[in-house]
Amino acid sequence: MQPVKFVTADSLDSDTGFVRLRVGTDLGGSGGPGGTSKPVISKNIKEENIDVRKANKLDTLRAGYKNMISEKVSKKFAEKDEVDDEPPIGAPIIAACYNGDYLYEENYWEGDVNYKMGDSLHYFEIKIIPDTLALKDTLAFGETAKLIVQAKDADSNDVEFPDDKLLTFRIESNENYGTFINANGDTLRATPVVLKNVNYGSAKDGSIRFAAVKENPDSFVTCSIRVSLQEDTTKAGERKAIVLEQTLSIDIVEPYSVYPTYFNSHGVRVYIEQLSQKQFDVKMTRGGKSVSRHHFKLYTDYVVGSGGHNHINIRANNNDNYGYFLKPNDNQHYRPLEDSTSNLGRLDNIIYNASYFGDLMRIYLESSQNKLFIDSIDIIERIPNLVELQEGNNYELVGAPQNHSGTNDPCRPTAPTSQHSVNHFGTQQMITSIQNIADDYALLHSGIIIRVNDMSLENGGLFDANNNWSNPHQSHRMGTNADIGFTGISQNDNCVNLNRRDLENIIRRHTSQAPYIEGDHYHVYQ
Fold first, then answer.
1. At the topology level of CATH, where does 123-244 sit?
2. Which residues of 471-484 are buried (b: 16+ CB within 10 A; e: fewer)?
3. 123-244 and 248-381 have identical folds
4. Topology given in CATH for the domain delimited by 248-381
5. Per-residue model confidence as pLDDT tens digits over 398-448
6. Whole-model pTM?
């Protein structure tokens, strides 16, 4: 049996109530031809008590319905005409169908039909339309999708609904992977992710977007999106959005270190080129699959304060100070390097060539298509295995800002200008040589200690004693050099002249090299 459907009229002035409904062949009561009929009982319900008049009553029943509807419509029009002489916007309609499996008995049927205004809205359907238009309900990190909301009835039919009704959008699960962009283009930053006071009209036309811009999943996650009517939260809809990983990354193997680039005064590399170079790849994936032709940029910047450089002035913008990149089969120096992933989603065998400084150099990778796709890697530029010269009985460490008159260097009346507080690093062989030189001089000149000035910085590399990212030290880069002053310190902490002949002979004995004379000190090397 198909249901009786009652559609309320415009004249109803309350949200809920009931209407008494009477169905039969004679709406006036008894006396009509054939009497009245009652289409309410099925064969399987007490069939034995029913007066079967199926064949005879069919035509009478249909006629009764027609008369009833005509009478009600006419009455409604008459009531409306008395008020404003205009036809009603809507009249009550009673629709019913006869089914051959149902029986009818005499006497009319009368009953109360309960109604509630607005019950045609049953739920909201949510459609997720990704910008990529790839897979249904699926987007990746860094992408957005349009959300289209449609009011539905219990039979999943579209229903009309006021555009000014307010809705609430909420991410119910995995909210740390997604958020909403409102109709004004503003991205919701708050957590939990709840967007209130959205007009149904804006929700229906797709003005609200889901954005997978918070965290990048390792593989994929599912975010549950719920939309509800603010005045009645039981009227709601839910849809699941799948968020895939999408990653632009530097693929590099350990160790993450290179030697600082070093050319001698004749323009010749001091050690083999490969020690100053590090090879790596760039790759792009989406949902674990390669992404081809994705444009990117590589550039470098040093970490301020690294490598013993305590000064904060900015390096001159050149390859010596920032390093550079090489592409496969290409000898050109690039800084920055701009290119695209291949058909395999990669660009392999990129080479970073180190700067002149010992420091921490950061390689940055950025997408040219989406600012969310970034990566970076820190490369240590250093001479390996350098050791710091500790304080000793027969020498004093000088040359750093804290080493001046009033502390441990009476031979220097004012503090040095160098902003490198760790300036006494060397190879273990050099460290041992300095200690032996100091001990042997003390044996010849009791109570006199030598002054050891600049050696190398903690990572080696260019030692810019004037804090300007440029020479004055051509050497002092590999931990094999040290400056020993012509003056020393007596037991009374006085500055005294050293016996230079004795000192030079001792230096020769322990380094196998004659020291250079540079200003007020010997330049010792191995």
1. Immunoglobulin-like (2.60.40)
2. eebebbbbbbbbbb
3. yes
4. Immunoglobulin-like (2.60.40)
5. 988 766 555 568 888 777 888 888 899 999 999 999 999 999 999 999 999
6. 0.73
